[in-house]
User: Fold asparagine synthase (glutamine-hydrolyzing) from Ramlibacter rhizophilus.
Amino acid sequence: MCGFVALFAPTGSFNADLVIRMRDRLTHRGPDGAGLAIKPCGPLSVGLGHRRLSILDLSDAAAQPMTSSDGTATIVFNGEIYNFIELRDELSREGVAFRTHSDTEVLLAAYRHWGTDCLSHLNGMFAFAIWDEARQELFVARDRFGEKPLFHARLPGGGHAFASEMKALFAHPALAPEVNQKELERFTLGQYLEDTEDTLFAGVQRLAPASALVIDHHGVVARRWRYWIPDYTRVNGPRSMREASEQFLHLFQESIRKRLRSDVPVGTSLSGGLDSSMIVCVLADMRLKGTQFHQNSFSARFDEDPTLSEGDYIDLVAQRAQVQAHAVSPDPVALMEESRRLHWHQEEPFLSASIYLQWCVARLAREHRTTVLLDGQGADELLAGYQFYFPSHQLDLVDQGRWLQLAWTTFRFTSGLRRASLQYADSRRRFNERVALDRQQLQAARRSPPGVSAGPYSIGVPPAQPGMRLRRQIAEALQYNSLPMLLRYADRNAMAFGREGRLPFLDYDLVDWCISLPDSALIQGGWQKYVLRRSGDGILPKQVQWRADKVGYAAPLDVWLRGPLKEWAWQRLDDSTLKSLPHHDVDQLRSLWDQHQRGEGNHSWALWRWISLAEWLQMHRQGIWRDGYDSALAPAAVAA
Assistant:
């Protein structure tokens, strides 16, 4: 896990000092070392800068930029190739000799052997740029799900600039951090989902997940393609649920084994939910069966707020797995103090203050010298885990005329949530027990089935046909409107503290297999993520395996906004810059605020969107995106 920049621009338009300045905006991503390479190539030159977080092969021999033994290819790379051992063995049999034990050298050798087709061989999270001296072209790619970020911009004088984070691009004097007004309007409408290549900065784009491009020696994009597209219409169900759960567990264990490959300590994030608990408990079983692994877990919990706290579930899992459990209780006053730095690392405003919990967990891992964290991101998008997916499943059953199954699964789902709600004083703060379509709504759908919306997405999404509602929803979530944002939050929070997050549910072998499962393996008898629950037999505590509610890392923002954050939050909501934005209704926002303060509703999500945007825009006015956090945030700016 690292950070890099790559300039491919007219010769003489940049020098080593500029590449270093851009590169060192990413020091937090790579605190263990820095490297630089300048490659002249006629009218254009390539500048490669790299910041290293040492995970595999800690020696200087594995530093980047790394050049192949014949001098024809140079790489800068951020991420991990989890199957690098298997690829190394395969390439060694083909006569390739290796000088290091790093995955970087294996990736470079894979490119030298297979060319751009190397992408189909890679199991990992990655973003990289390879300068091919022989072909005089730059090859750039990003992993299937977009776990690792990569941004790019056209330079006004010709050429291209790439970077792991946008803040590094703005260290280039020709790239100004101007606001993208179109995307800003989408954000004010609540429609900014990071589902396109455009960002909130004009002229800066993110390379889409599962995408690659080749730039020739004239600086022209010669080829641009998407190398992985899931097929949600291909359903090859196992013969039984037992077979499905056994195969799932096998693939999941293989994914975890590969993600344990590290020369630094590995730990786990533990939220108390099903997904992270499964990782922790599978690791514990592997440890008991001989895998050498010192197991630490890291959690955020709010024991003083039992309605939101996951503390009881965290304790159950920690006791079951016999892990060294570490926990933090995020503080709203600290959130105020760290808000600017949190936004600096996130780079764009965000929809929930709950990502501050991730931030605190990453810092906790650093305090306990644990560099790598396994986490459960991606399971909900992959296995239909969000409770608001259930109505799509209900309507699919209506489409298919499966009335008995519809009645049974609806009863089981709603009764499970109803029983769970009795555990909490105000369960509405935790989850919506009435998320399912009720009998009246289902009868109306039976009389007149609603159409299937085509939506804005087509690539990798099944057709808008009856019976495909759930599959369309999870396909869109995995590729477009849910997971990309969550991966941004997770990457920036971890890298702010020089930590690496690894996500076992996003192993592409596991993902491709899960995509082919029938809906009955995802939701059955009112239980979502059914195949995952069944695979946890004998592994998970029963109270976690068959819990109906879902909350994950949720901050008590509703309470904070009525107490410690009240004055600070209103200062941002009352910011004059917001009042000039389209779709900003001062009276409506004031009404939401007053209702929230009186306890007449929980509007914390709607309010936070504007709070975060105000913070981001203030940072823009103060020149922080242009000058850098520490240089631009003078004492006067802090006071403001």
Notes: The domain at 232-553 is CATH 3.40.50.620 (Rossmann fold).
